[in-house]
Amino acid sequence: MNQQRKLDLNLLRVFVAAYQTQSVTQAAEQLDLTQSAVSNALSRLKQYVGSELFTRTGRGITPTRFAQELYQQIQSPLLDIESLMNGMTAFDPATSQKRFVVYCHEAMIHALRQSLDRALAALSVEVVLMEPPSSNEQLYDDLMLEKVDLIIDVDAPTSRVFASKVLTEDQLCCVVSETHPRLREANLSTAQYLDEQHVLFKMRRHQLPFIDWLVGESLPARLVYSQHASLIGMLAAVSYSDAIAAVPVSFAQQYQTMFQLRILPFPYDSGSFQSHMVWQAKFNKSQPHVWLRDCIEALVER
Asked: Which residue from 116, 84, 118, 88 is spatially nearest to 102, judged by alpha carbons?
């Protein structure tokens, strides 16, 4: 390592972005730099430390063992510094015209949207709610690249780069049409559930279908009636068919009357699942982000 020259700390910021995204292109996008600037910074840091940092693999880059050890050493201090600096930015919701973008899963998005409309009616602050991408990889890539400020998802983050807080807890239930010819009792057995045609949700988490991930096991093959990217679409399909679907209890109750549904217990022991509010840890003390998180938490608790 070259001890004669002072280290440009900006090189470490570029290194962390490249390490986290494992892509020069995405690191450049995250830092608002050109790809050549990122490549040049990584080259300068490589010369300073005297060791290879990344190897090229296809379209991306893979950190070397030295880079892994370096990242473990500098990640927390850099997060602390960024968090401190972000916390120094003043924010007044009464005068700010800031625009926030939030990914929110469908089971919460409509109720939260209505609550936000009422809460922000007298403010110029804008909070845009968007349905998230179906894969959790894309979800966290967009958060890392600051395409969104916050995500509300059913999965908690595992990386220290992100911070999170539980917003709500919910249970799964089954829904069928009120006129379903067979499922007319209050109880539902596993055999009855598997014998029916199923309306499925396209969302996947950790390479598993959504329901299988929540249950914690791969369920037996089911006869598919239809598959949807939207929970609303699932309820609509159930309403005009003899198919069955598994959805969050709160969501089923919200639309039970509209779609004329019967709510039945989910026959597997899935326990509860949580909705997590997730953000980049470097914004822990950022006044705009703290305000956004506090606002959403207060509205959800009402």
From this structure: 116
Q: Is the pLDDT of residue 209 over 90?
A: no
The total domain count for the chain is: 3
Beta-bridged to residue 240, according to DSSP, are none
Question: On the CB side of 194, how many CA atoms lie within 13 Å of its CA?
Answer: 7
Please state whether 58 falls in left (phi above 0), alpha (psi between -120 and 50) or beta.
left
The mean per-residue pLDDT over the stretch 191-219 comes to 86
> How large is the average pLDDT for residues 92-109?
92
Domain-located, residue 19 = yes
What is the rounded distance in angstroms from the CA atom of residue 77 to the CA atom of residue 187? 54
State how far the Cα of 151 lies from the Cα of 247, in Å rounded to an integer. Answer: 20
Provide the token pair at 277: 């509010």
Looking at the fold, whether 132 and 163 belong to one and the same domain comes out as yes
pLDDT digits (tens, 9 = 90+) for 256-294: 999 999 999 999 887 677 899 999 988 998 899 999 999
Residue 50's CATH number? 1.10.10.10
Cα→Cα distances 198→50, 232, 253, Å? 58, 15, 19
> Do residues 69 and 136 both lie within one domain?
no
The mean pLDDT value for 89-117 works out to 91
Which regions of 156-229 does DSSP assign to beta strands (E)? 162-170, 172-177, 197-201, 204-205, 208-209, 223-228
Domain encompassing residue 125 = 99-167+274-301
